[in-house]
Design goal:
Number of strands of chain B: 4
Shape of chain A: globular
CATH topology of the largest domain in chain B: Glutaredoxin
Order of helices and strands of chain B: HHHHEHHEEEHH
Number of helices of chain A: 18
CATH superfamily of one domain in chain A: Fe-only Hydrogenase (Larger Subunit), Chain L, domain 3
Largest interface: A-B, 20 and 19 residues
Largest sheet of chain B: 4 strands, mixed
Distance between the termini of chain B: 31 Å
CATH topology of one domain in chain A: Fe-only Hydrogenase (Larger Subunit), Chain L, domain 3
Structural class of chain A: alpha/beta
Largest sheet of chain A: 5 strands, mixed
CATH architecture of one domain in chain A: 3-Layer(aba) Sandwich
CATH architecture of the largest domain in chain B: 3-Layer(aba) Sandwich
Strand order of the largest sheet of chain A: 2-1-5-3-4
Distance between the termini of chain A: 59 Å
Oligomer: heterodimer
Radius of gyration of chain A: 25 Å
CATH class of the largest domain in chain B: Alpha Beta
Strand content of chain B: 5-15%
Chain lengths: 594, 185
Amino acid sequence: MINVTINNQSVHVPEETTILQAARKINIRIPTLCHMENREPIGACRVCVVEVEGARTLLAACSTPVSEGMVIHTHSTQARMARRNVVELLLSEHDGNCQTCDRGTDCELRALAEEMGITDLPYEGVKITPHIDDSTPGLVRDNAKCIKCRRCVTVCNEIQGVGALFPQGRGFDTVIGPAFTRDLAEVACVQCGQCAAVCPVGAITEKNNIQDVWAAIENPDIHVVVQTAPAIRAALGEEFGYEPGTRVTGQMTAALRRLGFDSVFDTNFSADLTIMEEGTELLTRLKKALVDKEDVALPMFTSCSPGWINFAEFYFPQFLPNISTCKSPQQMFGAVAKSYYAQKIEVDPKNMIVVAVMPCTAKKYEAARPEMNANGVQDVDYVLTTRELAKMIKEAGLDFRSLPDEEMDAPLGLSSGAADIFANTGGVMEAALRTAYEIVTAKELPVENLHVTPVAGLEGIKEASLIITDTIHDWNFLEGVELKVAVAHGLGNTRRLLEYIKANGCPYHFVEIMTCPGGCIGGGGQPRFTDDSVRLKRIAGIYAEDESKPLRKSHENPDIQKLYKEFLGVPLGEKSHHLLHTHYAPKQQTCPGE
Amino acid sequence: MSIDATVAPCKCDCACGEQATEAELMVRLEEVIEEYREKEGGLIPALQIAQTIFGYLPDPVVNRIAAGFNKTVSEVAGVISFYSFFTRNPRGKYLVRVCLGTACYVRGGKEVLEAIKKRLEIDVGETTEDRQFSLEVGRCFGACGMAPVVMVNDDTYQRVKPARINELIAQFITEEEPAAEGENK
C-alpha cells in the first residue's frame, strides 16, 4: 500500500493506483474529458492536470501512478489556472453554438466551462471548417464540435472492435473520423452509436427524427402507432431526474398517449413473438441436425440486435447462415401492426405510421433496410432514441414525474416478463430457454426464479449448459442432450467469440449476441452517461420488471396465442415466413473507392 | 480507385523505363507485407516501401496492407495522413520537396515554395498534368546549415533563391523531357 496526501487529506491506496483513482477514493473530483473507465488512460485532453510537490511540471492525474509520500494539490492556483487554460483553448476552436446544439445542457465541455467559471474567452482561435456527415440513417457527425478527446476512437476500436473511427491527419487539422476523412456510409460502420453514447460534446449524435414524428402525429389522416423497446422503461426516467434503473413503464405510457399517438403498444409484445418464432427455429434446426442428419447451420445466433447483423454482414459473412432468420422484435412489430392490427381497425397500412422508441441508433438503419417491407410499405417508419423521446416529452410541456401510471393498449401491448429481459445481456437467451425447455419437456425451466444466472451480468462472454431430460414424445431425440449456449455483448467480445469458434469449432447450439456492452440497456441511444454502475442499475430494474409480472414466459402470453389462432397459424408457418422472417447478405468491408 | 501503374518506377528499380504490370506490383507488395507484418513498428517501413513500389498509396494498396497487418483501414489511414511523406495521389517523375523546417523557413523557404508553385502551376500535394513534377513540403531534412533547402527526388539543392527557381526546374525539363517544357510554362 502507498500513502499519499491529496489536498491535505491522507489516503492509502494499492500500488499502480493513479492519482485520479486515489482522489476519487476520497471523493475529490478531478475533471476529465478523455478518460474512460476500465481503459488505459491516453492523457490526450490534459484537463485532469494536478500539482505534485517536487514535480517539474503539472501531471495528468489519469495517467500518473501514485508514489510513496506524494503530496498532491488538485485545485491549487497553478492547477486550476492550467486546467482553465486547457479548457479555454478547447473552447477557442470549438464550434459551440450551444443554443442550437443537440447536447443542450447535457454537454460535458459546457459543464466544465461553467464549473471553472469561464465567462469570456481570451483566445481568438481559428475555427475548424465544419463538415456535417449525415450520410447514415443512424448517426450524424459534426467535426467542428469535436474536441478530439478520442473517447469514440477508444470505444469503436477497443470495446466494439469495429475501428471505423481513428484520428486522421495531424495537429490542428486532425479529424476524428473514418479513413481519409470519408463519411461513415463509405466505411464498415455498424451504426451501434456507442461513439455517440460516449461523446462529451455534440460531435456525434443520433440522426434526429423528432420533426417527422410530430408531423405524423399532427396529420389527422394517419393512424400513428408507437412501440417502445424493453430497455427504455428502465432508462427514460434518467432524463427526468430519476435514478438509473427506475422503472417508468406506466408514466412512459401516459406520456406517449398525451403526445398524441393513436395506439400505444409495446415492442415487448413482439419480443414474445420473437421467442415463439426463434425458439421454434432453434428446435427445428436441432431436429434437422440430430434426426434428419441434414447439413444445417449450428450454432444458431440471435438476430435482435441490428448492429450485430451489420457487423456479421461486414466482418463475418461466413456466419450469416447461422443467424436466425427472425426479424428483430422492432421489425416484427411493424409487420404485425401493418397487417393484423391494421385489418382489425380497418386502416389501410399506407395510412399507418409505426414509430419505434429504441435505446439504439442502429435501429434507425434497420428500419430503413429496403427488404423490411412485408406489407408493401416499410414495417417501421421512424425510430426515436430514448433521448429523442425525452426531448419530445419536454417539448410537449409534460411534467413527466407527475404523470400517472397507465396501461398499454390492446392487443399489441400485453407482454410477459421474458420480453422485458430482452433488454439485458443474457436476456434473450433466458427468455428462449424458458419457452424452449417447456415445449420440449412440458416442465418449467428448472432454475431458481426462472433466471439463467450463468449468462447474466457484465462478464464479456458467458456460457451455460443444460442436460435435457424427460422429453415429451415429439422431442425424444433431445433426451439426454447437453444443450450448450453462449452469450456475448459488445462487438469486441463478439469478435473474440467468433474467432474462437472459427479456430476451434463450435461447442454451442445457441448463441446470443448483443451489440452494446450490457445489452440494449447500454445502447447507443440511451441517456448519457452510461458506465458500468449505470448498466448494473438498469439491468436490475429490468429483472425487477420481469419478476413483477404474472406472466413470465412468452408462450403463455394470451394475446400471442390469439395472434397465432386468429392470424398467423403456427410459428414458422407461411404467414410468419412472409411477415416475420428475413435474410442477410455480405457487405463490402473496405471502401471500393471511386 | 484502381491502381495507376503508369506512375510506378520501372520493373527493376533501374531507369530502363519498362513499367511493371499492376499484378507484378501486387506480388511485390505481398512480399513486403510478409517481411514486415510480424516486426515491431513494421507498418511505417512497409508503407514507405509500398509507396516506392507504386509511386503512391492508392486504396487497394492501403486495404491490402491493413488486412496484412491485421489493422483497421482507419488506423492505417491515420498513419498515412499523419506523415507528410506519404501521398495518396500519383506522383510525378520528379518529386520536389521544399523544406519548411525552422531554419529554412526563416531563411526564405516560404518564398522559395511560392516561386516553385508559380513555376509549376500546382499547389502543395499536387502533380503537374504531364506527370513530370509533384510538389511537397518537408519539415527539416537535417541540412539546416544549407538553408533554404529543396530536394528533387534524392538530390539536395542548397541555399536556393526564388529568382533561380526557373533555372533549377529547367534542368529537369531540358535534359530529359524537352517536350514537356511548353506544357509547364
